[in-house]
Structures are given as C-alpha cells and as structure tokens.
Amino acid sequence: MFTGIVQGKAVIRGMVKKADFMQLQVELPKNRCENLQLGASIALNGTCLTVTGFENNLVNFDLIIETLRVTNLGQLSIGDEVNFERAAKFGDEIGGHVLSGHVHQQVTIDRIETPDNNWIIWFKTKPEWQKYIFAKGFIGLNGCSLTVGEVKEGLFNVFLIPETLSMTTFGTLEQGAHINMEIDAHTQAVVETVEQYMNNR
After folding, report:
1. What gap in Å lies between CA 117 and CA 94, rounded to an integer?
2. Count of Cβ atoms closer than 10 Å to residue 57 Cβ
3. pTM of the prediction?
4. CA distance 141 to 180
5. Which DSSP symbol is given to 115?
6. In 35-153, at which residue ranges do the beta strands (DSSP E only) sit?
7. Distance between CA atoms of 193 and 187, rounded to whole angstroms?
8. Rounded to 5 degrees, what are φ and ψ at 122?
9. 40-78: per-residue pLDDT in tens?
C-alpha cells in the first residue's frame, strides 16, 4: 500500500532488456534506504515493484510483460528520473489517498499551462477510463496523489503546487509524455456498482 506522497526522485542507473522482460537498477537517495530488504515493495512512477537485490543505494527490480505493457517504465532510458515511494507502514500519516501501485493505463500530457504562480497539466484519457474521473476526485499520476481539477470530454487536468514540482518529475515533463494513471479504488467501486445495478433493472 502507498499514500501517493512521493518521497523524491530516483535515477535509472542500469537496465537489461529481454523478450517481454526487463531488469532495472535504480539509485535511491541514501537517506531513503534505511531497513531496505529483499522482497520489499517500492513504487516507481506509481508502479508497485519488488526489490530483487540491492547494494548500498542501488536497488534492482524485475519487470514482467504486464508491467511493461501497462506502464511507462519500459520507455525509460539510463539517466532518467522517476518518482518513488517506499511502501507505507502501519502508523504512517496518509497525507494523500490510498494507492495500490497497480497502474490502470497510461495517459498523455495534452498541454501544460503556466499562468502566474500556477502550473496546470491537461491529460488525454481513453473513453473507458473517463467515467472514473471526477472534478475534485482523487487520482494517482506517476505515483502522486492528486486532486482532479476540471474534466472535459477526453481530457482532465490537475493543478500542481511548487512543492510537488520540486519533489517529483512533473516539473520537467513535456507535452506528449506518457504518465502512469491509477484511478481511485473507491470511485471505481461506486461507478461499477451503480452500472451493475442499472444493467440489472
């Protein structure tokens, strides 16, 4: 389980690509490696991954076909940065919303608006996922717990504060970038329950 409060940026230091499989090595900040263990869960760009090995602050992960198909991790290059969050522990403050780290799809940055003292990002999404996105609802984007601003046909936006821009990769992303999206589980449950009820009437 994750909170969507990104703990910082990690750097891709190595990758080995095979058929429908990839091994990834990531450099975490040293102060975020305390009590790191094999089998631990860490979210990279909102994708829950299992630690398969580590040495100091270099951490290894295996990515299988479904992860490569659904997320943007297979599009990374050495030197790229990703958002990371270590798994939440009982007693942690949940400042965002509960995320599983199971990415539903990728959305694309349609445009970025930067009026005075603001940063607004618009995303394109597929019709089958639009029904789960509501103004003022929660959404997970590259592992960040964010509040949806406006929703239009095929589009939605989020408003980012300076702290989010400095702690995450959002401040360096450009139009056309692919972003991992995890919809809010509670919203999904409500929408699908109502759909099932209406279909069975």
Report:
1. 27
2. 16
3. 0.93
4. 6
5. -
6. 41-44, 47-55, 58-64, 81-86, 105-113, 120-124, 138-141, 144-152
7. 10
8. -100, 140
9. 999 999 999 999 999 999 999 999 999 999 999 999 999
Question: Distance between the two ends of the chain, CA-based, in angstroms?
Answer: 36
Choose among 96, 188, 180, 177: nearest CA to 133.
188
Report the C-alpha gap between 8 and 133 in whole angstroms: 26
Side chain identity, residue 56: N
Q: Radius of gyration (Cα) for the chain, nearest Å?
A: 17
The answer to whether the beta carbons of residues 159 and 89 sit under 8 Å apart is: no
Nearest to 142 by CA among 99, 79, 188, 185: 99
Structure tokens at 4: 């969507």
| Contact call for residues 109 and 158 (beta carbons, < 8 A) | no
Q: Please name each of the domains of the chain with its CATH number.
A: 8-86 (2.40.30.20), 105-199 (2.40.30.20)
Rounded to whole angstroms, the Cα distance separating 53 from 59 reads: 6
Cβ(2)–Cβ(99) below 8 Å: yes
pLDDT tens for residues 82-91? Answer: 999 999 876 6
Reading the block at residue 56, the tokens are 């100091």
Residue among 1, 4, 2, 3 at smallest CA distance from 168: 4
pLDDT for res 90: 67
Question: Rounded CA gap, 88 and 125, in Å?
Answer: 28
- In the numeric block, the tokens 């990690």 are attached to 10
